[in-house]
Amino acid sequence: MPSVVKNLPNAITLLRLALVPVFILLLKEQDFPAALAVFLIAGISDGLDGFIAKRYNLITRLGGILDPVADKVLLVSAYVMLSLLDQIPFWLVLSVVFRDLLIVGGYLAYTSIVGPVHMRPSRLSKFNTVMQVVLIVAVLAERAHYIDAEALIEALIYGVFITTFASGAHYVWIWGVMKEAEPNRGRRKR
User: Fold this and answer.
1) CB under 8 Å to 124, separation ≥6 — which residues?
2) pLDDT of 92-110, one tens digit each?
3) CB within 8 A of 132, min separation 6: which ones?
4) Bridge partner list, 117
5) Is 113 within 8 Å of 178 (Cβ atoms)?
6) Which tens digits make up the pLDDT trace of 46-81?
7) Backbone phi, then psi, for 58, in 5-degree steps?
8) Of 17, 64, 71, 187, which one's alpha carbon is 20 to 30 angstroms from that of 50?
9) How many CA atoms lie within 13 A of 105 on its CB side?
10) Where are the beta strands (DSSP E) in the chain?
11) How far apart, in Å, are the Cα atoms of 105 and each of 7, 17, 141, 156?
């Protein structure tokens, strides 16, 4: 298989990372329609790279690291910029960023004490990510004057806070009781 094809999912992920500064600049200029378009393209690329990697067995260790990093960089950038533009409250950004730092720090601490583990995102964590994305899309679409969503945005802000807190607490609980973290001893869980 040609190297270009073999690395296509990683190239798509790198493109998503390259879109982050464009997205930030569009938000800085308050070009909400263009920022929404870039955010949606980045979201589609996230699904596309995963589909291609799984469908054609092109999963790589690099892709396993780059993909979640690209996702987090895009989401955190969106939250920070939307907070700086007074579109979402700062306390929500703090909760989202703190949860991500808690998860990364907890994972690093746990692996340094116990050794390598295979962690998988919980359903609650996946739901939290969906809520975070929906809030960003709603804010951008409302600011672009595509929808009137002030009440929805207010509800989503509190929904994101609740799911962020619950998801972070869930990971702490998982590490405490070790139900979903398994030592990585050369075998993969199916």
Assistant:
1) 163, 166, 167, 170
2) 999 999 999 988 888 788 7
3) 75, 79, 96, 160, 164
4) 183
5) no
6) 999 989 999 998 988 888 889 989 999 999 999 999
7) -110, 30
8) 187
9) 8
10) 117-118, 182-183
11) 29, 22, 34, 27
Q: Which amino acid type is present at position 188? A: R
Instruction: Quote the radius of gyration of the chain (alpha carbons, Å).
Output: 18
Which residue, among 82, 101, 103, has the nearest Cα to 92 in the 3D structure? 82
> At a CB cut-off of 8 Å and minimum separation 6, what does 61 contact?
none
Is the CB of residue 105 less than 8 Å from the CB of residue 151? no
78 contact partners, CB below 8 Å, separation of at least 6: 23, 27, 39, 136
Angle value at C-alpha 113, between 108 and 119, nearest 5 degrees: 50
Q: Which residue has the tokens 């050794």?
A: 115
Exposed, middle or buried, 179 (CB in 10 Å: 0-12/13-18/19+)? exposed
CA distances from 122 to 15, 94, 127, 163 (A): 27, 21, 9, 12
Query: Tokens 């993909």, residue?
Result: 67
| Cβ atoms of residues 135 and 156 within 8 Å | yes
What is the C-alpha to C-alpha distance for residues 95 and 100, in angstroms, rounded to an integer? 9
